[in-house]
Structure formats: structure tokens, C-alpha cells
Specification:
This protein is α+β, with helices and mostly antiparallel strands. It is 29% helix and 29% strand. Strands 1, 2, 3, 4, 5, 6, 7, 8, 9 and 10 form a ten-stranded mixed β-sheet that branches.
Length: 278
């Protein structure tokens, strides 16, 4: 039986680089928020232990696909003898900063934990997710969150309702390229979660944004246009940029007047991941 599950996008409402660990990983502070737009994954359980993505996707080798890697990691860690055929419907761009691959991996862990009847706890799935990527745990955590460390230290955070205009520049930004750039600021002063919640933080921004805009003028173009309508910024390591609005009507109005060459979407902010109660 084919069962389908959502894999929503995330936005980083800010992203500060506050230091660097001895192993080279960057120490971050950010706020994650999910939106009601993303990929979807369908699973058919197999009894022969084989795990495969059955649909071809340009530029995404099945053996490097985080969905396949997540399924195999879960299988190996639990000794499960079941397998799965996976169909991945991609809507989120690769190299867009929307967490598409991480979200796909988290949905795979959550879905197969249920379909294979493994009964692993949410924390155990978060720990497995961290081995796949720093953004995977928050999708398993399943709530808007204030994040620290490399992104795995998560605290739930209440956020006001919002609709987002998200623009998708026609470039794929390399996270490694941006984080290894000599131009990147790595000493932003840490803030407290209460600073963000009350709007008292001395500065809220995305520290990666200036580096990306210099290297990718298409990102700067989209950001400059969107800033005419409010406080716009980049999500993650790019390339996507966004601005928040108080209503769907207001967001749609802005989106309707964007230049024809700019792609994107309008999405509602979510308080919880659609699979939070799975």
C-alpha cells in the first residue's frame, strides 16, 4: 500500500554565526519556522529489505539522496528487515536554503518509524537525523524553535501568525562554499531567546547574506526588490529570500506585482510540522 507524507520547507527567521568549533563546524543561533509548502514522499513497504527511490530526479543521484540514506540508517540502527520503495516529489529547490533535503530525510525517518512499527522516540530520531545533517533534527522536533549549537539544540518558540512571500532565485548556492568563505563573519554576539521573542535583540539578520549576495547577484536582485515591501532577508545559506506579512491577502498582493522573471510562492507559517503527532 502506497502512503504519502508531507515534507515542508523551513525558513530561518534570522541566522547568526556566533563561533566555530575545533572540528570546523560553525556555532549558530537561529529561529526555524515551517511553512505549508514543500515536497511530498510516498512509501511502499517491502518485505525483502531493499530500499530504493523509484522515480528519477535530475541532478539527484539516488545513492546520495538523503531520503535513501535516512531509510538505510534507520534500517541499520534498528536491525529492521523491512525495506521501502520511495517516491519523492520535489517542489523545493536544491541549494535554496529551504531545507528540502533535510525535510525529506526527517519525513522518511518519521514515516518509516511508523510504517516499520519501530517505535523509536522522537529524541532517538532527532539523534539519527543529526548524523544526516544539521537541519534534520528540527524537522523531527516538529515545532517552531530557537536553535543553537550547529542547529541541534532546540527550544520550542511561540511565533505570531504570518504569511510569507518567498522568492526563488535561479541559482543553487553551495552551503560549503559560503561557510568556508573568508568573508564570513563568525563572531556575532549571542542573543537570548527572550530577546527575539520580545523584539529586543540589538540586531537580527542573516550573517551569510552579504557573502551570498556578493557571489550570487541574482540573490541580491530578489532581495533588493522584496525589501521595498518590508523587512526581507535570506533563509539559510540561500538562495531563497522572504518577507513576512500579516495576511494572505497582503502577501498575495505583493507576490502579484513581482517582476515576471522572478519565481517563488506564497506560504502560511506553521506552528507545528504536519507530522508532529505521527
Amino acid at each position: 500500500m502506497l502512503v504519502t507524507y508531507p515534507a515542508p520547507a523551513k525558513l530561518n527567521l534570522f541566522l547568526h554565526v556566533v563561533g566555530r568549533r575545533p572540528d570546523g563546524y560553525h556555532l549558530l543561533q537561529t529561529v526555524f519556522r515551517f511553512v505549508d509548502y514543500g515536497d511530498s514522499l510516498s512509501f511502499t513497504v517491502r518485505d525483502d529489505g531493499v530500499i530504493r527511490r523509484v522515480n528519477p530526479l535530475p541532478g539527484l543521484d539516488p545513492e546520495q539522496d538523503l531520503t535513501v540514506r535516512a531509510a538505510r540508517l534507520l534500517q541499520q540502527e534498528t536491525g529492521c528487515r523491512l525495506g521501502a520503495d520511495i517516491v519523492l516529489e520535489k517542489r523545493l529547490p536544491m541549494g535554496g536554503g529551504l531545507g528540502g533535503g533535510s525535510s525529506d530525510a526527517a519525513t522518511t525517518l518519521l514515516a518509516l518509524n511508523r510504517l516499520w512499527n519501530l517505535k523509536l522516540s522522537r529524541q532517538m530520531l532527532q539523534d539519527l537525523g543529526l548524523r544526516l545533517g544539521a537541519d534534520v533534527p528540527v524537522f523531527v522536533f516538529g515545532e517552531s524553535a530557537f536553535a543553537e549549537g550547529v542547529g541541534e539544540k532546540l527550544q520550542p518558540l511561540a511565533l505570531p501568525p504570518a504569511w510569507y512571500v518567498v522568492l526563488v532565485p535561479p541559482v543553487a548556492v553551495s552551503t560549503v562554499e559560503i561557510f568556508t568563505s573568508r568573508e564570513l563573519t563568525r563572531d556575532t554576539k549571542p542573543i537570548k531567546m527572550s530577546d527575539f521573542s520580545t523584539g529586543c535583540a540589538w540586531s537580527i539578520r542573516n550573517d551569510l547574506e552579504p557573502v551570498v549576495c556578493r557571489k550570487y547577484p541574482q540573490v541580491a536582485e530578489c532581495l533588493d526588490w522584496l525589501k521595498a515591501f518590508g523587512d526581507a532577508r535570506m533563509t539559510g545559506s540561500g538562495a531563497c529570500v522572504f518577507a513576512a506579512f500579516s495576511s494572505q491577502e497582503e502577501a498575495n498582493k505583493v507576490f502579484s506585482v513581482k517582476p515576471a522573471q522572478m519565481a517563488g510562492f506564497v506560504a502560511k507559517g506553521l506552528d507545528r510540522h504536519p507530522l508532529h503527532d505521527l
